[in-house]
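Ticket opened by: R.M.
Priority: normal
Category: complex prediction / small molecule

The reporter submitted a protein together with glutamine and asked that the result be attached to this ticket for the collaborator who will pick it up next week. Submitted input follows.
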Amino acid sequence: MLNVSLKELSSLLAEKKISSVELVQTFLQRIGELNPVLNAFVTLDTEKSLAQARAADALIAAGKATPLTGIPIAQKDIFCARGWRTTCGSKMLSNFVSPYDAHVIEQFNRAGAVNLGKTNMDEFAMGSSNETSFFGPVKNPWGTSTVPGGSSGGSATAVAARLAPAATGSDTGGSIRQPAALTGITGIKPTYGTVSRYGMIAFASSLDQGGPMAKSAEDCALLLNVMAGFDSRDSTSLARDKEDYARDLARPLQGLKIGLPREYFATGLSAGVARAVEAALAEYRRLGAETVEISLPNTRLSIPVYYVLAPAEASSNLARYDGVRYGYRAPQYGDLTDMYQKTRAQGFGPEVKRRIMIGTYVLSAGYYDAYYIKAQKLRRLIARDFAQAFRQCDVIMGPTSPTTAFKLGEKSDDPVSMYLSDIYTIAVNLAGLPGMSVPCGFGDDGLPVGLQIVGNYFAEARMLNAAHQYQLATDWHRRAPPGF
Ligand code: GLN
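Result attached by the on-call engineer:
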């Protein structure tokens, strides 16, 4: 039960071998046992989850099931869910019960899926280790002294430790792919605009994108089928025809052209990660794909560009947390300005404050041209690198993260070294492209390694195909952490 695919769960439900209520109870019990150690979930609501499960069982009995009906999904606590506490990992929202559903939550509800609980995350999705959460760090089940990655660390651990069959994440600079890599699961960040941002708490709006995290590419395809789709309430939502992301899964890989960016295999990449990625590429060649060297010359600019643009957008987005309408308010204050100041001083953690200060600085009158406008120009160059690369290949592959999971606390005092863990993922967000991470082996320390697959705009089905064919030939994605 814990290791089966979503498709298998769906057949078990359809054949009445198990009910959704039983399924949800099984996972809730596991969460009850293991969450005290892992800290993957921050909010559970047994009553609500079971009510949804009962409704799903009724749909199944009435023959009205769709592929995800009755399946429990862990929801990253960045997605507003009606009647659920929705915190975004922050003290600022630690008392906020959402009055409405995010588009993604609505889509899952419409599909008859069950909300299993809200998962822990870096505060406002700012981080790469889940250590900036107000609710404390999440542990990686592959080694509980190591981080699960971030910011979707709770979702990653929930899937890796089999506390949930699947989960949602969001990715602004790598937050689906990097934790997927560090916990040995599969995750996809779709093309910007594919999944509506309505009700997904904003960090950096031009980069934020929701996506699925699961045990396999096939599961991710089924989840994306539900999550994707036009939504007029998000002005950057793409008005495109609905597509079936599972349509190409069975396609053979003969003739697939894989671009290997020279810059992604250079200094800074750990030997164990390099070895696992090389072995994965050898497997792709065996499956009939061809590899070509490409260059993404502006890769080195992606971290500095991101750390101007993302904080700039964050400083604007987070201005709404003022203690007036909802969320945390300082208990004692003098006048209105003092209330704002104390609320924000107490409600935000240090990483969020750092980003707000950087963002405010780069947007200020004297520095706007020098930093913000400059970064926007460089963003264009980074996107152009990819456009050129995709003239030579169908997909790009390389490591997702330069290292395997690092130790809790190892990078907490060194923000720049933390920022560097997204060196291979961030450019993909800056360009708005789809990217995914697939487990491809283990490093010298025995911890999981992720292979990153980047596609051209709207190439999700092709990427999922490449990932699925690899998963048919290998079993890395089936490995569960020992003891879980
Ligand atoms: N780690 C990056 C950051 O801290 C990306 C986070 C994300 O994708 N949400 O901003």
